[in-house]
Protein: YhcH/YjgK/YiaL family protein
Organism: Cyclobacterium lianum
Amino acid sequence: MVLDTLANSHKYQGIHPLFEKAFAYIKGQDLKALEDGKYEIDGDRAVAAVFTKPAKTAEESNDKFECHDRHIDIQVLISGEESIGWKPRASCRHQKGDYNAEKDVSFYADAPEMYFGMQPGQFVILFPEDVHSPMIGKGEIKKMVVKVKV
């Protein structure tokens, strides 16, 4: 997991071949004016989703404590205040159901090991080994999630 501000995104471009393109796309948008929807960055290899939704309680979000096998998430907070629960996948012991290949998601009944807050202009990179429960907060949260194929 990586947590930082968009101003420092250049430091992480070498982690994955598509990160430079993904961060250029993110930084090239007027994020506050961007409408909810899906946006293609590089075919199906890098796709952004923008959404505005009510925040969840920690309990609601932890009910869908999730991770992905085939994608890395770059989650950018646009507005609101958000906390995200996190735990390394290697420490999770209680998978809920089977891996959903169509949606590229596994859920766990484990509790997060820690929570971290995000402010607008910050991003988190969540790798397949990062189990996470996003959207915890109050009020409305607007964010962009870029799915980058591993």
